[in-house]
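Data availability (excerpt). The following record was deposited with the supplementary files.
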Amino acid sequence: TSATIMLWEMEYALCHFARGEWTHRVVLDSDSGTGPDPCGEGSFNYRVVRTLVYALPFWLRSMQCLYLYLTSHHKGWPRTSILVNLGKYTVSLLVVVTSASIGWTGREYYDALRALWLTCLVLKTLYCSLWDVYMDWG
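Predicted structure:
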């Protein structure tokens, strides 16, 4: 999951490359000083593709943990720790989904979704920090 940001940026570069924008000059808008960005904020690519790319590593790790839990023959804490690890990746997925849903919905749900996103973000931060301290460094 440490490659998530790299995948995010690579997807943005690939979007521009695939669209062929590197082959022609972009005319800037005189008011904003920028041209339209078909891969940037507000585009289908930004709202859907980038969200999927960002969620993919967390989804894969979640599925890996679930598979390990279901196929593990261990008893007690070794098996339970797999579920706890699954929770870490599931909470990370919740942060991605709630963050993306803020951009997908209208202004009437903004405050509620922002509060939900912040709650998930705090929960993820605490969860992952505790996991790192007790499991990775312990």
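Summary of structural features: The chain has a mean pLDDT of 81.
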